[in-house]
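#lab-general

N.A. 3:47 PM
ok so I finally got the sequence cleaned up, no stray characters, all 298 residues accounted for. can someone with queue access submit it? mine expired

B.Y. 3:52 PM
send it over

N.A. 3:53 PM
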Amino acid sequence: MHRVSSKAGELPTYKQLIPEVLDALAKLGGSASGSEIIGQVLDQTSFSPDMVERTYPNRSKSVLIDRIEWARSYATLMGLTERPSRSAYLLTRSGKELLALPKFEAESLIKALDSQVRKQRRGLRKADIREEEAEIEQEIAAELSTEESWKDVLIDSLHRLSPGGFEQFVVFLLREYGLELDLVSGSGDNGVDAIGLAPISEVLSSRVAVQVKRYDTASPVPREEVALFQRDAAARGAERAIFVTLSRFTKPAQNAAIESTPTVNLIDGDHLCDLALQKGLGIKMFPRVIEHWFERFQ
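B.Y. 4:20 PM
back already:
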């Protein structure tokens, strides 16, 4: 099993975190979303709260989580993982083989692969590219500077809202997906921030309770909070429940969400960004032409 080796208190580099990303994918069954990988890496490592909570000077982004994201992206560029869709990652045969290597050999291989990827990326900016594999690499490389950045900006914007404003945004977002909700205001809300109906079909709906906890990205939602919300939702007669946060959920919290009723749908910061993007709420994504793609028809 690979473990990050760095001096006490030092944050690991993205290269040091690549084995942890691969190990996380393996533990998650060989495939997972980006946020699931981050959550698993943080759950399986022994980073102190101080290390997780360190942020960049000008934004609330956790430096450690940012480096996990870079490790996740570089693992794809190195062929250790695949990304068949925008939200899914797969562990490749090469990734499994690297995990089976002794720690020293794995580190040496990652160093060599990193050097190769960086050399290829420099070439992508200068060369006339026709190979489809190179096109894919360039697409992934471009995502390193675009995809994560817009989510960072969105999450920072949502953090700047007041607690009440963030609740209103979440309720508005869920209404856009067809839920009929009313905000529950006051100190006697019993852990439920909104209550209403979630349409199942034209003639059937389910009573749903919603809880919104903004939280800092470095502070995951623990099992106890999810279990308490389940009890509060049940007391309100809810058949289903939704827990929304800008942070993430620990593995025990994810287990608690499905161990009793009502089942809780968990929406973390990464998923919330994707939901907002689909509805175009405060986000505009412009099409980008990949000019060299058309060279195959010359």
